Amino acid sequence: MVMTRSAVAKKKSRSALAVALPREVVVDIVGILAASSPQPMADLCNLRPTCKDMYGASKERHVGRRLALEKERTMKWRDNMAYFAMLENLADAGNPEACFIVGLTLVFTRHNKQRGLVCLDQAAAGGHKEAAYVLGMLLYTLKDGQDVAKRYIGEVEGDVGCNKVTTEKTNWECRKYKQLAANAVREVAWKGITNGGQPVLLPMLPEDGHRCTSARCGVPEDWADYDVFCGGDCRIRHECVEFFGQVSRYLP
Question: Contact, 150 vs 233, CB < 8 A?
Answer without folding.
Answer: yes
